[in-house]
Amino acid sequence: MSLRFGLVGVVAIATAWMSPAQCDTIKVGIIGTMSGPYALFGQNFKYGIDAWVAEHGSKVGGHQIEFVYRDEESPNPAKSKSLAQELIVKEKVQYIAGLYFTPDALAVAPLLEEAKVPMVVMNAATSAIVEKSPYIVRTSFTMWQNTVPAAKVAKARAAKKVAIAVSDYGPGIDAEAAFKKTFEADGGTIVQSIRMPLNTTDFGPIMQRIKDSGADMIFTFLPAGPPTLGFVKAYIDNGLKASGVKLLSTGDVVTEPDLPNIGDSGEGILSTYHYAVSHDSPENKTFLADMIKVGAKPDDITMASVAAYDGARLIYKMVEATNGQKDPDKALAAVKGMKWVSPRGPVSIDPDTRHIRQNVYLREVVKQDGKFLNKELQTFDAQPDWGLAKN
Amino acid sequence: MAWTGLSIGLDALSYGMVLFIISIGLSIMMGLMRVVNLAHGAFAMIGGYLASFALKNAGVGYPLAIVLAVLGTIAIAFPLEFLLYRRIYRKSDELTQILLTIGIAFVIIGVANYILGPTTKSIPLPPLLSGPVDLGFRMIPAHRIFVMICGVCTAGLLWLLIDRTEFGIRLRAAVDNGDMAESLGIKTQILFSATFALAVGLAAFGGVVGAELLPVEPFYALRYMVTFLVVVSVGGAGSIPGAVAASILLGLADTTGKYLAPEYGEFFFYLAVILVVFLFPNGLLGRRH
What we know:
heterodimer, A: alpha/beta, 6-stranded mixed beta sheet, 12 helices, globular, B: mainly alpha, two-stranded antiparallel sheet, about 0% strand
């Protein structure tokens, strides 16, 4: 047996050695949170990509596409950078994609120009990332993009005094700044601005503080994960909901997998976001069916899978445009201004910022046929990244 | 102002009681059996998972779910006790203990993540305990009142058990001089196994009732490990009143900090720890070993 495998190996190596032209596999390195507390989102990257491949095959113009996964685990820039280096040098990837956390994406950015590798960011949501290299394009969202509509909603719903509570890190501070700027420009007042440490789990004291401030609405952002549930429960159980204080958030706080855990008392929570699993469109139906086909559980599907699905679309487009050759400028040129209908709605890549322009929806948590979902109430068309566009 | 103070005090007390219920088992293990059990949080997490499963999938009531979670966790921990922990009671050096118990914690985290997935598992509360209760000057989650009652009962019953019963007398004898106790006919091995079961059961109990404040997910075991260890070292290993005092003190430091200056994070919590350990190297009520 081992002799036979040995021979096969020798032949394989010899073939690879002698005829590089025929060995046409284009590798794409995916850096995502495959394990650890945020593993749900790394898995969503994989399912989203698998769903795309299931629909469109694993070949583009005769080039075989292979996705190579690496585990980013947690916000760990040093590790992400070395993973990217390994992917570029050892795996010889032509594209890098994924990146759940902002610090990790920022750590990889400086490598791209030298290695001539385009990067498709599938989550990390701080505005400035796309400015760090001309080879970065993003298919997810930014805090500004989702928060500016939230502030408009607050105004439209006649909120006078808003308390802001955000996680104390890059995207949280972006959300705070975006809300504050937009809401104050519309004549609203911010009565409290609380930055909560990322590892907070006991939100009781924070709720008490908000209540004492006399706010009539809370705007919040926490990264999707264990603490969001605690925040929403503390809001309800400390009597803020009962006394009429409204809760408005970005969709990260009410991701679909968390809704059953929040339970009945979560009904009526408002959020603004670029994707709801319940989005009613033929594209989304196809997408969800393919997600199930590749093994995703219906209750585990989040926004990260849509960003990955659309990210895979961009990678296929770039491979097609360059005919499998390493030409990042040509690849980027091919996707700038690209327009398509994503499962989340009509989107396009802004040619100036290389960030995705998309609809942002106002949603409300409702119970339908015994299942909780984010029901879309209102659409804000084709939102740019307000943090970059000087609007 | 007075109402604000009282309000912070209530939040502090309930958070402190959760810390107490989970940490007291660890304190007993460290104080009586000299085992630094870094897998303690993992057992609390198992309790939480079992309760969540019992409530959501098996459809049993909340009180029964707590009992099942405690017994189930003890049952899961028993083979570990028989095969591993039994070897490190009272004699082995710290490094062996730490490597062994952190290894167990990692295994439990890995298994939980593999089988149950990385998402938070909720423990649905019965209608009686969910929602707010109006105290006049503020609303408080009904669950927090329940947690405070649980904490006080646990402290009282443990004190009775260790100070006032035959079991407690034998246990303390075995702790103070194991060889002498053995020669007097006390079966120390059984005593220690029973104490281990007690510690693990308390962890599971705390994991279930504290799940609203410390949500159950696979990394629970590591996320709160330092917090539990800090409670034990501030209170003094093995001391029940010490653990109560430490839990309330640390709960107060943490809650007040969060209310007055949330952006400082856990600064006030650790400031309190540093001050106490500086003034009382053996913990508030600990004994010198």
